[in-house]
Amino acid sequence: MKIILYAIPGFIILILLEWLYGLARGRNTYRVADTITSISLGSISRLRNLLFLGFGAWFYTRAADGWHLFDLPDKGFGIWLFALVAYDFSYYWFHRVSHEVNLFWAAHVVHHQSEDYNLGTALRQSGSGLFGFIFYLPWLYVGIPPEILFASGAINLVYQFWVHTEHVPKLGPLEYLFVTASNHRVHHAQNSIYIDRNYGGIFIIWDRMFGSFQEELANEPCIYGIRKPLKSYNPFWANVHVYWSVLLDCWHASRWQDKIRIWFREPGWRPAGLDQAHPYKQVSLEDFSKYDPAVSTPVKIYAFFQFFCTTLAGTGMLVVATDWPSIPVFFSTGLIFFSFYLQSAWTQDRAFAKWLEWLKLGLVLLLPSYLPLSPPAVLALQVYLLISVLFLSWLTLNPARISADARRG
């Protein structure tokens, strides 16, 4: 959606401002590796649409061209307000089901994995969801014009960006009508009193109406993350780890009914006997600690440089690649995905990272032969390669110094 694409520069600026504000106040809510993972997941979620047009597109097209209950107008304040409220109502139920049914939670969990809470967390989106469209499809049959419904969805998503911060306090009477930073902090917390609460996108009234509202309490600080921690910065494992966990339980279940039922039960439900035969490690919030592997400063700098360049390339792809042939799109998108994976390897101090990085740079060197790049883009690519090769050569030739730095950190 163009609205989201145009909002991306604003997102990045606000993330930088929040980081600087946190540093100035002595309350920084960012960690480099976690933020890299969050934004990488957001980029992968957007780029996925270049490879797959969307499972729901076929259904949306049929609904938009078919029978409508009402012949609603395609302009005017009234239809826009109706569409925004209607979309948010459906979003509430989609979001709630995404917390209460394993099949949906497996996709949505990506957004909750971060153990930090900041504007970067807002960009941490799933790349695997397929079925969310069914919650919005009825509004096309009601008669809301598809372009207004889709724009309402984009506005809903953009609105939710600002509420992902610890720096905005409660906002008085606005807390009763709108989703705010305070009541969305509750939604991201794993404290028992907060878990699975406050599902609204723009309006908090749905939670108040349907019994899922919980106020943020001064005596109960939010602890962010999920009860079964990811403990990884790998964006692809982040997208599949719950699917894998449920699939294992499905495989080990003795009754065929349980093999099906587990996908439609609530997260944490397991067939009888699996807790004893295949136990999960329980997490105690009393001694909770964030996942934070020690990595040297030079490696952090290199990983951040690669992340910055990869994110820039991914954003450029969203702008221009719709006019490219399919083979260049698949090749360049696959290379961007590979680069995002490598950044997770760097930030987890994986020994193989530097050797795979050389492979990636070799593939990048081939890009001008396969992509319809403009001369400025080719020049930027050459500058990127020069900096990367020099920095990576230094990292490859100085392993002892890097390891010592990591031990001191």
- How many β-strands, per DSSP? 0
Q: Which regions have little confidence, pLDDT < 50, spanning 5+ residues?
A: none
Backbone structural class: mainly alpha
The secondary-structure element order is: HHHHHHHHHHHHHHHHHHH
Number of domains: 2
Helix content: 55-70%
N-to-C span: 42 Å
Radius of gyration: 23 Å
Mean pLDDT: 92
The outline comes out as: globular
Q: What is the count of helical runs?
A: 19
Percent of residues in beta strands? under 5%
Largest sheet: none
Layout: helices, strands, pairs:
Blueprint: H1 2-25, H2 32-51, H3 57-65, H4 77-100, H5 102-108, H6 119-122, H7 137-142, H8 146-159, H9 181-188, H10 205-210, H11 235-252, H12 256-261, H13 274-277, H14 297-320, H15 326-347, H16 353-365, H17 367-370, H18 375-397, H19 399-408
Helix pairs in contact: 2-11, 2-14, 2-15, 4-5, 4-8, 5-11, 14-15, 14-18, 15-16, 16-18
Key terms for this structure?
2 domains, 19 helices, 409 residues, mainly alpha, single chain
